[in-house]
Amino acid sequence: METTRKTWFGVITQCVLLTIVSAISRQNPQVKRNFTTFHAEQADWSFNHMVVDARSGSIYLGAINRIYKLSEDLKVLVSHQTGPDEDNPKCYPPRIVQPCNEPLAVTNNVNKMLLIDYKENRLIACGSLYQGICKLLRLSDLFKLAEPFHKKEHYLSGVNESGSVVGVIVPHNNLNDKLFIATSVDGKPEYFPTISSRKLSANSEDDGMFAYVFHDEFVASMIKIPSDTFTIIPDFDIYYIYGFSSGNYVYFLTLQPEMTFPPGSATKEQVYTSKLVRLCKEERAFNSYVEVPIGCEKNGVEYRLLQAAYLSKAGSILAKSLGIKPGDDVLFTIFSKGQKRGMKSLDETALCVFVLKEINNRIKERLQSCYKGEGTLDLAWLKVKDIHCSNALITIADDFCGLDMNAPLGVSEMVRGIPIFTEDNDRMTSVIAYVYKNHSLAFVGTKSGKLKKIRVDGPITGASQYEIIQVVESGPILRDMAFTKNEEQLFVMSENQLTRVPVESCGQYTSCSECLGSGDPHCGWCVLHNMCTRKERCERSHEPRRFASEMKQCVRLTVHPNNISVSQYNVLLVLEAYNVPELSAGVNCTFEDLSEMDGLVVGNQIRCVSPAEKEVPRIITENGDHHVVQLQLKSKETGMTFASTNFVFFNCSVHNSCLSCVESPYQCHWCKYRHVCTHDPETCSFQEGRVKMPEECPQLLQTEKILIPVEVVKPITLKAKNLPQPQSGQKGYECILNIQGNEQRVPALRFNSSSVQCQNTSYSYEGMEIDSLPVELTVVWNGDFSIDNPALSKVHLYKCGAKRPSCGLCLKANPDFECGWCSGEGKCTLKQHCLPLENPWLEISGTHAKCTNPRITQIIPVTGPREGGTRVTIRGENLGLEFSEIQNDVKVAEVKCTPIADEYIPAEQIVCEMGDAKPSQHAGFVDVCVGECRPQFMARSSLLYYFVTLSLSKLEPSQGPVSGGTQVTITGTNLSAGSSVKVMFGQQQCIFDRRTASEIFCNTTASTEGLEKVKVTVQIDKAKIPQELQFEYVEDPKILKIEPEWSIVSGNTPISVWGTNLDIIRNPRIRAKLGGKEHINNCTVLNSTEMMCQAPALAVSYNHLTDVTERPEEFGFILDNVQALLVLNRTNFTYYPDPVFESFSPTGILELKPGTPIILKGKNLIPPVAGGNMKLKYSVFIGDKPCTVTVSDVQLLCESPNLTGRHKVLARVGGMEFSPGMVYITPDSPLSLPAIVSIAAAGGLLIIFIVAVLIAYKRKSRESDLTLKRLQMQMDNLESRVALECKEAFAELQTDIHELTSDLDGAGIPFLDYRTYTMRVLFPGIEDHPVLRDLEVPGYRQERVEKGLKLFAQMINNKVFLLSFIRTLESQRSFSMRDRGNVASLIMTVLQSKLEYATDVLKQLLSDLIDKNLESKNHPKLLLRR
Hints:
The protein has about 1450 residues and is of the alpha+beta class. Among the domains are: about 255-430, YVTN repeat-like/Quinoprotein amine dehydrogenase (Methylamine Dehydrogenase, Chain H, 7 Propeller), CATH 2.130.10; about 555-695, Immunoglobulin-like (Sandwich), CATH 2.60.40.10; about 700-800, Immunoglobulin-like; about 855-950, Immunoglobulin-like; about 950-1035, Immunoglobulins (Immunoglobulin-like, Sandwich), CATH 2.60.40.10; about 1035-1140, Immunoglobulins (Immunoglobulin-like, Sandwich), CATH 2.60.40; about 1140-1230, Immunoglobulins (Immunoglobulin-like, Sandwich), CATH 2.60.40; about 1320-1415, no CATH class. About 15% of the residues lie in helices and about 35% in strands. The chain starts with a helix and ends in a 10-residue tail after the last helix. The relative contact order is 0.03.
């Protein structure tokens, strides 16, 4: 029955898990590749560890509360429950050993170690419950063989994290195996050794299981962290990352804190150092303990924080570059940048390689020097005081295991690994490696769930990352990765999924170049099968040229000719193929889906025929003049295409101009008299009509700009060459002009082959806003035979009066336009249009071409200093056509103003520089004379120009950072005067920003003299303002602390910033940059040491929004021009996903009663911040009123205000807002009058009914009393009769007994033996009960069954179990009275030697039965009647 129950449990579990897996796979349609995946049963039952059985290929997966055995295709074979259970980490020993006074809580069991003991076919699974006890499970079905917990050696560690324990099994042939265990102690060194070696008994129930290999009162095979260490480093612990055995030693890779002096500092600071620990396998007292620091460096960057490691063998290529033998041990490691972050490492990581032999040589050198008495033991955490090495004359061999002197020992000099690959953005988290055909291949997991495939060739050539796969959609890949038994698949694990990934994906490459260019050593090109695969999977790959492993071995194919016309059919094509295998089976030639025919193989040539007429593709104008198809060779042996090349079908007839025809890359000819393009020149009408060269094409030549005034009849003469003479029946020439979308055709005359003229015609266009309009010109003959216009010559139509309202602008027009100013009509026209002819007409080339009546419309500025230097801009009309006309005749407020030639715009603008003004001069007009100062050539402004006095009053702020960038405000009067401003801070110029009449704004530059006070001077034009101001350069602000160091993607959460000199910054801002996009937010300075900022949003596109945390590429502050704070390297600022809310319902309306809380469901409501109590601040509004909010992980609870009706719900957090919908609060309305009347009527009827019932009850009671008295009288009579009968019967019995005893005087009273009597009482009617027989079980099961019965007997002796067992049976409906008797008899048989205990159980059962009957008021029932 038990076996059946286990089988059904396994089947049900498997079905449930498969359902979960399929459901989750359906929810992730964006997965690019479909990998076989196993997901966690529950979201919080995350995966911890994984091992693969190298013999069977089964996967053992350690998770929270579960151990799974999976098949290679990740199907659940069996599972074993490990938790949860009631526990408290402070209970030592745990509560299963002795009662604990600490409060107990249901606690998950985290799997901390998972090892396969191959020798005894069992799995060692250690958890976090009960101070870290371990279970021994049978590999085949995860049956629990033992769970030692009664000794302190059985408690490995109280740390509740999965990566805190590392174990290594050391097998022995004839003796028990050893288990080396290394663990973090979490501040409890008195309870747990940090490293130890334990016995691994063959008998799982052996009392010495997990006992120390050696232990007496002085030494033991373990090391504990001394309590003195915690006085120096209070949070000291050793974090074990990886463990392995090699040769005579066991190795552990660790990360541990230590105190060091930073460069240039006299005080120590805590850093983290990665170290390798080595122990002898056979050593008992740990005298061989040696640890050596490890790390690597690349381009000056130190990588010192170990993340993951894996021991592998060196392939021949890597071995050669490292100078070692193929197959030597190499250690692949992942390090992150720096030393100060501990377990919270940076994203910058490096993949480094260590040669294990070199590490052992370094340790050997240190041992030799120590035994010569050189240096100290150098193990600060174990030997708080420096202990000098002792001198001893011994030889240090390669397998030296230490003495009881000079041990344990530390190596001070770091062993540097070889960095072969670095990653700056996506932190590498795990690594595994193996050798494939001389290549060393590393597979690296990252924090974003990607798997990197890297070919490691050595320190010189480095490493080649040849493929990246997205394995996990969210979350990092954990350290445990493993290969399948045949090393063709890789198991990759994250917290919630286990995925099987092929080590190679050669099938994704569709061409030989892609395949061999991928860099994947697994991949080669199977030629005749036309696929990328492993060599062993390619048929007959050992034969020549059937498998390509180098790029130069790819098949090449050429064809001659490589193009033909679409009007050519069945053309013989000769193909030459290179690097092809023997083709005796034959080939087919295929033109994509057009046609397929047999090819004739002659040596390395294949002869094919082009498609027939009906198979040639149609080529139309929209698709160009050619069509490219793939000419493919298909093997008849495999039916696969193994080579292809481009073949072109071209169509000359799509060309409709001579130049495009003859410039085609194909054999096209132009027939100029037929105006067609053909591949066959024989089809042209005349020999002289065939054109092959562009120089022979009819075409227009480049001419000068063709200018045509509108409404003027004028011919257009064009130069050309090779113009054909129309033949008999052909039409002549025409010119076509496309004017504003309207086509205008004009007859044209061909003078000869090099000249053509469009006849006299006038042209026009709409609008006066266009002064010159370029118009496309086309020359055609014979109706639509166009002449090529390679120069794209155009006709320019123009209007003199367009955009030229004044005389000056008219005379400024292009002289080729021949425009002039018609004074009588006051407009710009051609001379012939200025009527009557006696009106004056001015032109630029005339002798008296000077416009009268100049006018000033604008002057800038209108104020300036008397000292001069102001540049005054004068705008107007007719302000001269040449600079010389106004050069000496400009005055501003009676002060000479010198015009500047470079800024003069004829007729429109004069810019002049003011001279000095006298103190008596205050204001005046601007006067300009054009050429001569006569009234018709003079202009005066309507506005006055004023001379003003400048003054300064103050400077704010008066100090700023030495790096500059401070925006300074200088206050004064008349500061907007003049045209230029120059502000000097000492010798440094302040960069001008803007100004008003009372303020000047400028930005300081960096001080060249450091911290100083400087004099501030202001100069406007040539006026130096006399007032003196001072500005002080002070030390740049510094940022010391940021809290919290996180926000959400949408930003706008408060951040407190502490630093120095923060109050000197007027406009502090905070910035974050991701993906090249920068977001900035503002800060508010509170005082010199504190400011409050709003976190900037992170530039994440909506297509990229995930639940993944992000770290910005750059994070810092914009504090004026302080460059050092733009990017903070000390911060680890993190962005968590935005909270996501769910809508109330599909309708978006939630109906509630007043006072009912509103629940907003969602996710990411509380960021998973490691350490810290900072939370997001939520604001929820019901309409305009806020409500009190209580936040949990998945919902917001809002105490609704006293409102009724329909209101919009709005949730705000950080920089985001979301409305889940509307809430409708229904009021508690009072009862209406009809309702009150109805209730009253119902109440009256109820009272009448109750009175009637009481009257009836009273009458019934009286009748019952009479009946009771009558029955009582009858009972009394019955009792008297029974008493009389009993008296008579007793007398008769006395007579019978006397007669019987007289008969038995000789023989005595007969009785049965105890066994017969007991069997008849307990098991009536059963002569041969199983309890009387020996155990009838086959021999191979007998020991197991006996063991099970013994365990069951022990459990029956437990009162709690026995009572629960009986109550469970009685609660079953199928448990009949006969079954009750049988079970009771069996239990009493077992307990007949413990009748006191049995009596106690029976008393408890009888008490329960009495209580039950009293509650249910039923008749008493028999309990276990026999």
